[in-house]
Hints:
The chain is α+β, with helices and mostly antiparallel strands and 190 residues long. It has helices spanning 2-40, 42-45, 53-63, 83-103, 132-135, 153-164; strands spanning 50-52, 69-75, 80-82, 109-115, 120-125, 167-175, 178-185.
Amino acid sequence: SAGAQRAEHERREKSAYQAMLERQLPLLAKRLQVTLDKLQNPEAGAAQAMIPARDWWVEVTQRHSESGIELTAQGDLDAMLPANLFDAMLENCLDNARKKRNAEPGIAIRASLIAGTASSLAVEDTGTAIPSGALDNLFAAPVAQSRRGGLGIGLFQVAKQAERAGYRLTLAENRAGLVRFELGAGQTTA
């Protein structure tokens, strides 16, 4: 019956959601510890935790193994990268892309790491472009939430964190079928 199918579908969704939460708990605990450390010692909090790209990527693939997100890494995975910054960018952009996928079922989401002396990270989706009205202040100020969610204060915060660490967050592509955010070392813009 339709009621039994709906109940089974809801049970599967709850189970998938619970599994996703269990994968995310280590990251949440880590973020809380970083925040606590910053509050207890503000000078130390300003420094970025540098870890090997390989270790960071293993954590990423474990957290997102069943999320339907395509994950790729290449380059020198022994290179060090600022884990807190890369986590913030990845999780914010993936959260925004997942919200978009809820409104636009079937879009693909990809995250790619290129590790090396100047590691970079890209998160892209195959959905609709970001509306032009949201582009002017995308990284300069919090953007009003859209009906489908996302693009709020998170990108603004990540852009500021990137700037402090000598990185730059950009919207590298913005067209129907390809919206890509990139985080890479380089000159920041005012």
